[in-house]
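Dear H.,

Thanks for agreeing to be a second pair of eyes. The structure we're designing against is below in token form, covering all 394 positions.
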């Protein structure tokens, strides 16, 4: 049933190339400061080795720098005590270890903290830290694009046109700057408790439409000699970019979350317009192929509860039928309103009935508690003022 024919595979490869070529049109600006110094954050290990080789330095220097940047969280070359002063000075002449600038930081009544980060070209995204209410741990929700090309009807980001993709430095930089805010350096080793313990790639934008930069950033985050967050602690959410899902699974092996939100193509076409390209059956087939999906590592299906739109008991039963045989759990997300949003959230009773049907069928289906709503930091509420630059001078 899930067999991929050679013709299918070719089509998928062509589609993947098209997606990657389009992503390149929205590339981030170069990672240099106004005075021409290069940001070392966001370089792969290999690139760091090359930068140092250009200065006549051996590869072990790259290893040392990696440790200072990603394990110690140092941003000042002068604090790198394992590197002699003359080399530190040469490094500081050519490089910086930067962070996105936190233009505003707001903390919600429930402890959720939202950062508005501004990059060198003045474009902005939001990042949210959601602490666990009971334990000393929490998730950092990071953005991958300024705006989004997709326009899911219930999503605030979807009302903001895609301005550009974020670079690897900007993606990993959000996490590092959030860690700065809580002083969580050096990176806790192995399974030691961490306040910022998981990453959810669920902020602004569609990560699989900015795959290369997202993948590069996540590889940095997962590197055991630096931040060292394991792939099991990272969840990437997609609205269903089917041709990129296989690569994400094979190359990154992170947990997958899929924004399903509807059980018929008719409704999904309307509220998640990407469905017109990749309908539910194709999306679920890609989920069934997703490497590493097992009972221990289930795929999360996100389902935003829209009153009277997608929340009936019949729809819950249809969802059970669709998910049959898939190691899955379902996150029921109460719809978070935003200024001018066209929906209402389902009643608690209706959401509970919906959840009960899924639970009875063996699918864990927690009802997500909205966090940070008072500061518009909850799922789907993120948006910035950034717009695509106009040509006009002056
Ligand atoms: N583009 C990706 C990741 C970012 S959106 C995606 O769509 O999956 C993260 C999650 O928030 C998605 O499941 C999205 O559907 C959900 N979401 C968007 N708007 C929402 C809203 N107003 N209320 C609740 N959840 C919302
Ligand atoms: Fe984009 Fe995700 Fe929002 Fe849809 S839900 S508009 S894909 S950010």
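And this is the sequence the design step returned. I haven't edited it by hand at all.
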């Amino acid at each position: 049933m899930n067999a991929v024919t050679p013709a299918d595979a070719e089509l998928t490869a062509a589609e993947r190339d098209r997606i990657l070529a389009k992503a390149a049109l929205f590339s981030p600006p170069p990672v240099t400061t106004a005075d021409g110094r290069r940001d070392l954050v966001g370089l792969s290990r290999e690139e760091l080795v090359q930068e140092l080789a250009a200065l006549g330095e051996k590869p072990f220097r790259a290893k040392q720098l990696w440790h200072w940047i990603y394990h110690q969280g140092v941003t000042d070359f002068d604090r790198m005590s394992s590197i002699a002063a003359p080399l530190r000075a040469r490094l500081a002449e050519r490089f910086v270890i930067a962070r996105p600038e936190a233009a505003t930081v707001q903390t919600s009544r429930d402890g959720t903290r939202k950062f508005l980060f501004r990059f060198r070209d003045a474009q902005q995204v939001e990042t949210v830290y959601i602490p666990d209410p009971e334990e000393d741990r929490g998730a950092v929700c990071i953005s991958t694009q300024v705006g989004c090309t997709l326009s899911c009807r219930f999503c605030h980001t979807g009302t903001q046109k895609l301005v550009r993709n974020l670079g690897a430095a900007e993606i990993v930089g959000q996490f590092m700057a959030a860690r700065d805010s809580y002083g969580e350096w050096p990176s806790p080793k192995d399974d030691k408790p961490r306040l910022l313990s998981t990453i959810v790639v669920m902020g602004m934008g569609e990560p699989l439409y900015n795959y290369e930069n997202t993948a590069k950033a996540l590889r940095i985050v997962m590197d055991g000699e630096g931040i060292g967050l394991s792939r099991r602690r990272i969840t990437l959410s997609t609205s269903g970019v089917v041709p990129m899902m296989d690569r994400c699974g094979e190359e990154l092996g992170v947990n997958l979350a899929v924004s399903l939100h509807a059980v018929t193509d008719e409704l999904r076409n309307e509220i998640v317009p990407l469905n017109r390209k990749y309908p539910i059956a194709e999306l679920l087939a890609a989920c069934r192929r997703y490497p590493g999906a097992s009972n221990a590592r289930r795929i999360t299906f996100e389902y935003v509860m829209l009153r009277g739109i997608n929340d009936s008991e019949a729809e819950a039963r249809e969802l059970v039928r669709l998910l049959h045989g898939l190691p899955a759990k379902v996150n029921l997300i109460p719809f978070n309103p935003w200024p001018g949003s066209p929906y209402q959230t389902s009643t608690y009773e209706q959401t509970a009935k919906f959840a009960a049907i899924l639970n009875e069928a063996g699918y864990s289906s927690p009802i997500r508690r909205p966090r940070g709503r008072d500061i518009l930091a909850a799922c789907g509420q993120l948006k910035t003022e950034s717009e695509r630059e106009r040509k006009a001078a002056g």
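Two observations from my side: The longest strand covers residues 124-131. DSSP finds eleven helices and 13 strands in the chain.

Warmly,
E.
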